[in-house]
Amino acid sequence: MPRLVILGSASAVADANHENSHMLLQGPHSATLIDCTGRPLVDLKRIGVGLNDLTDLILTHFHPDHVASVPNLLMSAWLLGRSAALRIYGLHHCLERMEDMMAAYHWEEWPGFFPVAFHHLPGQEGVGVLDNEDFLITASPVRHYVPTIGLRVLVKKTGFVFVYSSDTVPCPELIGLAYGADLLIHEATGDEPLGHASAAQAGEIAEEAGVKRLGLIHYHVWNADTAHLIPQAKAVFSGPVFLCEDFMEIELTRGV
Predict the structure, then answer these.
(1) Spatial distance between the Cα atoms of 167 and 187, rounded to a whole number of angstroms
(2) pLDDT tens digits, residue range 70-85?
């Protein structure tokens, strides 16, 4: 059964119980990591994803709490003998810097390194990211401190649609991306007019887009109280609301 696993739920500052926000999208034929932080190989092994099982990596934007573990993922997988190719997707702003970072590590000199292909996405609404046997994924730019994309995922087997806002202020691009989705996973860092949204603003987006369920992610955890987040979103959104937690599994099936 296709599943989404929340591997991290924290905003930029993680703590002992919450890693920075990232997630794994898995179907029978593919496994896609959305952003890469923390200890990716350790976490993937914990949820039963093998060394060669990871097929794709999508990077939403070039901030440390979303991409810092990419070099470690690549190096560790190489050292452990990965052979399968890996595709990496993101905006040019992000992938150009990621390629520069890997060049700084002289990865071209790592002998026997597995194939890696970088796919630079244009910053346009509704851009195709990947289309495989399990999922159709499209992206639209959202509004953050640096160029950032939100994602819309269609699960081909079940028809389930979920959308991930990534880091963004409320914007019409996200409303269009999320329209009619079964699930919207939206950041709830707080009302920062240039880069982030509050739980209440996430609820407003969910209501305006007509989504069925709302999950809150990328919230403050360091010496922080999270009890107010769900009530704030529920005050403006008529559907169910939940708080994403690390290693929460979500079945991508309608009626679940």
Answers:
(1) 6
(2) 999 999 999 999 999 9
114-142 residue pLDDT tens: 999 999 999 999 999 999 999 999 999 99
For residue 132, the Cα-to-chain-centroid distance in whole angstroms is 18
Residue 36 lies in a domain: yes
Kind plus residue range of the DSSP H or E element containing 72: helix 70-79
CATH number of the domain residue 57 falls in: 3.60.15.10
Give me the DSSP letters along 3-65: EEEEEE-B-SS-BTTBPBSEEEEEETTEEEEES--S-HHHHHHHTT--TTT--EEE---S-HH
Question: Could you tell me the pLDDT band of residue 64, with boundaries at 50, 70 and 90?
Answer: very high
Q: Which amino acid is at 123?
A: G
The pLDDT of residue 82:
96
Q: What is the mean pLDDT of the chain?
A: 97
Q: Structural domain tally of the chain?
A: 1
Q: Is 253 part of a structural domain of the chain? A: no
Helix (H, G, I), strand (E, B) or coil at 122: coil
Give the structural domain span for 173: 3-248
197 domain residue, yes or no: yes
Q: Which residue has the tokens 């914990």?
A: 46
pTM score of the predicted model: 0.97
* 108 within some domain: yes
